[in-house]
Amino acid sequence: MPKTVLVVDDSAMMRKVFINNLTAAGLVVNVLESPNGQDALEKFKGGGIDCVLSDWNMPIMDGITLVREIRKCDPAKRVTIIMITTEGSPDKVKEAVLAGANNYLVKPFTPERFKEKLSKVLA
Ligand SMILES: [Mg+2]
User: Fold this and answer.
1) Burial letters for 31-56: b for 16+ Cβ neighbours within 10 Å, e otherwise?
2) In the predicted model, what is the mean pLDDT of the chain?
3) What count of Cα atoms within 13 Å lies in the side-chain half-sphere of residue 95?
4) Of 57, 59, 14, whose CA–CA distance to 33 is shortest?
5) What is the C-alpha separation between 108 and 84, in angstroms, rounded?
6) Residue 119 needs a FRET pair 20 to 30 A away by CA distance; which of 45, 53, 83, 110 works?
7) How far is ligand 1, taken at its centre, from the CA of residue 1, in Å?
8) Rounded to the nearest whole angstrom, what is the distance from the C-alpha of residue 55 to the centroid of ligand 1?
9) If 0-12 CB within 10 Å is exposed, 13-18 middle and 19+ buried, where does residue 14 land?
10) Using omega within 30 degrees of 0 as the cis cutoff, is the peptide bond preceding 111 cis?
């Protein structure tokens, strides 16, 4: 059964990049897309999501708030959350991990780096 991945970014082009990288990495997944944290949270609450790839800076609800809201519903961390963002400072990485993110990928990333992070989660 393929995993279901929710791809969250306010840039439609970036969402496409994530999806292309999932495909290029040979990871067979079902994909859902959201343009902001609020839309993503609604989709998450609909159930069936195995993994969330989320941007940090988005309108309406940002990625760090999304992580906190998901963890309120999922304190056992059944869902894997990976932040993918230009916010690569150690303080930001620490903040994301404390909020409940499992892993972190800084933009821009190479296909190899993306595959390395995602294949562990989605294999
Ligand atoms: Mg953004």
Assistant:
1) bbbbbbbbbbbebbeeeebbbbbbbb
2) 94
3) 12
4) 14
5) 9
6) 45
7) 31
8) 6
9) middle
10) no
Cβ partners under 8 Å of residue 42, min gap 6: none
Which residues are CB-contacts of 7 (< 8 A; sequence separation ≥ 6)?
15, 18, 19, 31, 32, 33, 34, 53
Sign of torsion over alpha carbons 20, 42, 10, 110: negative
The structural domains of the chain, ordered by start, are 3-122 (3.40.50.2300)
Going from the Cα of 28 to the center of ligand 1, the distance in angstroms, rounded, reads 25
Tokens of 23: 């495909």
Cβ atoms 83, 67 nearer than 8 A = yes
| pLDDT 10s digits, 13-59 | 999 999 999 999 988 889 999 999 999 999 999 999 999 999 999 99
State the distance from the centre of ligand 1 to the C-alpha of 91, rounded, in angstroms. Answer: 18
pLDDT digits (tens, 9 = 90+) for 93-104: 999 999 999 999
Does residue 122 contact residue 27 with C-beta atoms inside 8 Å?
A: yes
